[in-house]
Amino acid sequence: MEESWRALDGHRGAVWSVDWVRRSDGRLLLASGSYDETVRIWDADSWECVAVLADHDRPVASVRWVEPPGGGLLLATGDDDGIVRLWDADTWQCSRVLVAGDDYQGRPSGIPLLRRFRRPPARLKRIRSVAWIADRPGASLLVTASYDQTVRVWDAGSWRCRRVLTGHSLYVTAVAGARTNDGQVLLASGAYDHTVRIWDVDSGECRQVLRCDASVISLAWATRPDGTLLLAAGADHGTVRIWDAQTWECRHVLRDELDGTHPTDVVVQASSLDWIASPGAGAGMLLAGANLLGNRVHVWDGERGTLRRVVDPIRALERPANFSSNYVIAVAWADSTERDGVLRLAIGGGPDLRLSVWDVPLDRLAADA
């Protein structure tokens, strides 16, 4: 069986972030954030755009869903002006605005932003990543990564900034959270300073510093079937490192080698990572990585460190090999419910590529494929 795909048209600019959620009624939704300053919501049954969220004034770099303990569904979206908006999935209205990278606190939507004479330069306020963490039963935390070298932790509900984590010496570009077997909350942050920092959310202390050989631009946790954790970090020259969170030993360094179709001066970037558990594929844990300027998505066996599949949206969608407009930025697996022997993968890219959804057959992901 070959991969099948569909293009989702609507965005007028590059798609920088994608995230799936399955609602309590079983409906599967996809959120996509774009350089065109909008977020679009897509229904996976009809593939229609069911909402356009247009309150941002700058490109949207990160989108993440969460189901709050009290019920319902929220979407967090972060933009290039340091603004994080929270959206109610029942009404698609913005219910809260947070400003990271300055000293504002959360406030209800509709209250205008105060303009001050002394504000950080726009490039320092950019939100490059947002993430949710289940803090404890009945509570969630929102985490934001900013170009001002900080990581901010927000209490869901009060929307007050609980902590500002400092320690990175350059732009912070990625955050991701996970829980250990014994209930500890681990927060990872990656930055242009070539490091990944592991934080204790309760104390605000940095527990571990993991070294990379290039700027870190993407992070993703995986929970194995036995409950132990793996952490993957993507760097801006195409390598992906995978650490065992029990020992912090680097288990694999995955590389995406350029082939003869790419200019020799292109710097390949692992701009987005996402894990999925798929026992049916014979791997246990699969890691998808977006190759920003290599224009492809690689699917690795995260346990063995071997390449399972390369998805080439440029070729399949018959787009020209134009590196200024056709590039892959974002990837996200749908939930692990296998449908008709396939796994579903959303791919976001440059202004000519934009957004597509792929059904990848499990037999194409098998070790002997």
Automatic annotation (TrEMBL):
Keywords: Repeat, WD repeat. SMART domains: WD40 (SM00320). WD repeats lie at residues 8-52, 53-97, 137-155, 165-209. The keyword NAD does not apply. Pfam families: WD40. This is WD40 repeat domain-containing protein. It comes from Plantactinospora endophytica. The lineage of its organism: Bacteria, Bacillati, Actinomycetota, Actinomycetes, Micromonosporales.
